[in-house]
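thought: fold this chain, then report.
action: predict
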Amino acid sequence: MPQIFRVGPYSIYFWSNENNPLEPIHVHIAEGKATANATKVWITSTGKTILSHNKSQIPVRTLKKLMRSIEANSGQIIEKWIEQFGEIRYYC
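observation:
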């Protein structure tokens, strides 16, 4: 799983295989190592985030901070997504 960055103990990453056809751009968040039950956050074309689900059960206050970090780094995330998958689609 390509890790994009870390915030404290949380890893923000992509899965190597994001389905065919490719899902809209999103990241997964997990405490520690990547897991199949990680929290999923969509990234919009404006760089904002939308929570898909919080399967990692990250506390709400922490999750809001993580989502702000994702928004602040959305340009970098979008670039890495295109490098990884060669194309991009947006949720909204």
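thought: worth noting. The mean pLDDT is 91.
final: tokens above.
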